[in-house]
Amino acid sequence: MGPKVETTKLEEKTKKRFWPAKLNFRSVLAGMTLVIILTGIVMLAKRSKPAPVPAPSLAGAYLSAPKTQGPATAPIKIIEYSDFECPSCRVAQQELHKIIQEYPGKIQLTFKHFPLTSHRWSIYAHQAAECMHIQGKFWPYQEKLYEKQPEWAPSIVPPVEIMFQYARELGADMNRFGKCMSDVSVTKAIYAEKEEGNQRQVNATPTLFLGEERFVGPREMQERGENAIRKALGLPPIPVPEPAPPAIPPPPASAPTSDKKTP
Questions:
Q1: Residue 241 falls within a domain, yes or no?
Q2: 89 lies in a domain?
Q3: Residue 197's domain spans which residues?
């Protein structure tokens, strides 16, 4: 059995749209709540520190650039909708790294945010990753989030300090990072990407697209994904081993015989 795929129901679309890009109202409300919490935490963390040099605000002006890895000329384009708190998304990274290494220069991977509402700290990680993307450090931060998932995901409080620690370890401009963590326009961009996934009927993470062909979970990527890539490259398929038949239980032990002799 492969790792369990994390699932969520498609969010109900509202008739009225309060944001551009047709965002779901519940998602935006959750994002606004996150920003209020983050703003309070950042302000408390900085209360005892000297006032930093102001950085340009992103509010109302942020447009997320594509988060891509691999050459733009690559013949294979993979789009991944993922959740940083999803265990099977963490496992899928191993398969993606393996495939990218085996076909150098042939694959371009694009990451799309899809934070699940069932994961309470996921949106904090997505906000932090997008803030690191602004500083050109998305991919190393993404790897750290998955690598350290067992460290921050079980936290009983919002793991904001941990997110700051990871950013500091990767050499981020911490003043800029702190302002970005409470920027509602960044949160809106995250939920805009999730809405794209909703429009494509994404209801589980990770979901990966190769053209219009989809692969849900690391097992599907392993069993079908690589051969789909090879087919697109004009290469012969790799034989997929048949699943092992279920083990046959041993017959029940016979009742023990008595050693007593018959008179």
A1: no
A2: yes
A3: 18-44+70-232
% residues pLDDT > 70 (the chain): 71
How many folded domains does the chain comprise? 1
**pLDDT tens per residue across span 206-240:** 999 999 999 999 999 888 999 999 999 999 998 87
CA-nearest of 132, 139, 112, 122 to 193 is 112
Question: What is the rounded average pLDDT of the residues 13-28?
Answer: 43
Which strands make up the sheet holding 207-210, listed edge to edge? 67-69, 107-113, 76-82, 207-210, 213-216
Whether 4 is covered by a domain: the verdict is no
Place of tokens 């990407």: 193
SS3 category, 149: helix
DSSP 8-state symbol, 62: -
CA 17, CA 24: separation in Å to the nearest integer? 8
58 domain-assigned: no
Query: What is the number of alpha carbons within 13 Å of residue 79 lying toward its C-beta?
Result: 17
| Token digits of residue 57 | 């605000």
